[in-house]
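Q: Sequence in, structure out?
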Amino acid sequence: MKITLIRNATLWLEYGGLNWLIDPMFAEQGANPPIINSSNDRRNPLVPLPVSAKSLSMPDVLVLTHLHADHWDAAAASILLAGRGADLPIFCQPGDRSRIAEFGFSNIQEIAETLTYEGVTLTRTSGQHGTGDIGRAMGQVSGFVWEAHGEPKLYLAGDTIWCDNVKQALDQHHPDVTVVNAGGARFNTGDPIIMNADDLLRAAHHAPYTRLAAIHMEAINHCLTLRSELMEVAQAHHLEQQLQIPADGETLIFE
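A: Exactly. Output:
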């Protein structure tokens, strides 16, 4: 299994003999305004793609955890439609099919629980995209678990804080590798809406058997947890062997 972090939550996953593109945001650096009600006015994305968007236009499968603009944008839709075409297999959470189809795609399947495709089994998990009124306003989000013969079991938690949904997914699936969105995104009011360093520590201590990869960092203006800060926390808690924090464009290999 090879996981390449492209930028933010966008991943290129080589798994089960297939190339999986996950949560593509292909907008050019600075193309979008800052997230509203955030602590700075930096335009998004904060950084450029480390590779050309065209080089990502021919995946075997597209997986969308949810449809917030930093996980699925018009630039990605246009490039994928021109590259792989309307029949690109797309897997998403329940309720998202019609909005994806508006971009011109036709081969879209919602996963309520479990689906097997070309020998790879995908299981949908749930999450909590914040707390209180903000969490409710952020809407439904999903994660996914990948399983295939001869491959490590992979859990992509998605846009979620540490919560019972994540605990249950870890306990049920016992993944070899867990990818967490750990940029500590938040607004000027309320709690973080994805994991931060404290949440990552909770995940590491709850599931010491899983190797962790932290992504969704340093690309959107309200993601306030830095890679350097997360590494300092990991070192202080002796998690260097369990946690990896890839740079944009970096590939992680798991046997």
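The radius of gyration is 17 Å.
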